[in-house]
Amino acid sequence: MQFPIKKITKTDNPISQQKVKVVCRVRPFLPHEFPDDTVGVDGNSIKITNQRNPTEILKYSFNACYGPTTAQTELFNNDVYPLLDHVLKGLNATIFAYGVTGSGKTHTMQGSQEHPGIIPRTLRRLFEIKNTSINRIDIKVSYMEIYKENVYDLLVPRDSITGLAIREDMNRNIFVANLTEKEINSYAEFEKVYSAACKHRSTAATKLNVHSSRSHAILCIYVTCRDDARGTTLFGKINLIDLAGSEDNRRTENGKERLVESAAINKSLFALGQVVEALSQGSSRIPYRDSKMTRILQDSLGGRSLSMIIINISPGQAFYTDTYNTLNFATRTKEIENRPEVNQITDVRHVAEQLVLAKPQKTTRVVP
Ligand code: ADP
Ligand code: MG
User: Fold this and answer.
1) pLDDT in tens, 99-149
2) Nearest alpha carbon, ligand 1 atom 10
3) Any residues with Cβ below 6 Å from ligand 1, and which?
4) Which UniProt keywords apply (predicted)?
5) How far is the CA of 103 from the centre of ligand 1 (A)?
6) In whole angstroms, what is the distance from residue 101 CA to residue 212 CA?
């Protein structure tokens, strides 16, 4: 059945303007690393010792900072859990994990059996809400990977190396054409679907010589919340993104061919940097179309979504340049402002019933 879209007014909107939230997480030293005190966490700030002038400490402040001992639960409860409430109220939210390879992006988003990350925790929580809510909640997921400017569906086996196309609908929403959206009915079902999808990713990796650190993985969770009493349906969406490693491949990879490949891989991250730069400068032209990833996530950067970026940092002197670049990128990201909007549809039948009941009073006009 076709429902008319209700015009959203400012009062319907729980949050009218919201800066991109920036959270920083420093991982612990790994067994093979030599600990030093180059990077430190001090409240909501990260302090790094300037490599050029060791007497100088550079301090960067963010919405929250987490040190090496922070548990997955803490980050989830503080920063992700509150977002879920907004998603159930019809807002879109995006969480990015940004950082160099080995800095803890996959640990933060996916985690392990013993230390599950944001993805499993989000799904578990959503199913808890679904199973106890008086409203009807439906959950669907899609999972895609962007590698060398191609978009691949991870919920189906990969049968070609040509990726999916990105399109724009009548309401100027960007979507990936023919991307599978799978309805999920329980957390156990999600676990099965997700682990199979992760396998598609790694199988494809061997075939195409893709390394997960060089591709972006985007899990989309579509949450539909139907309130029969009010005759409304709210559509929320969460994008959970494990970005490709942000290291400068020109420094780490030698050889001409590798350099060309790196340029293609890094195109999306370079474009992300340019988009963030343009938005933070208040430019009139934002180069979203310069890469697949920025195009798909257009709405999450300067658009109608709530967004949070988790900056993952590898501690120690060895990563100083990467840490310095990452922190400067994060500082620009802080300046981006989004204007979240609720996605709501009102059932025509319900409006008609209300009109009969309320006669002869005037009612709100529903704009088709
Ligand atoms: P990335 O996805 O950014 O390349 P990973 O998430 O794979 O990095 O992390 C690299 C290594 O560091 C992994 O062995 C991971 O288990 C470990 N690690 C990362 N973050 C943490 C953390 N907060 N606590 C414990 N171990 C971590
Ligand atoms: Mg990873």
Assistant:
1) 998 999 999 999 999 999 999 999 999 999 999 999 999 999 999 999 888
2) 102
3) 27-28, 30, 99, 101-107, 213, 245, 312
4) ATP-binding, Microtubule, Motor protein, Nucleotide-binding
5) 6
6) 9
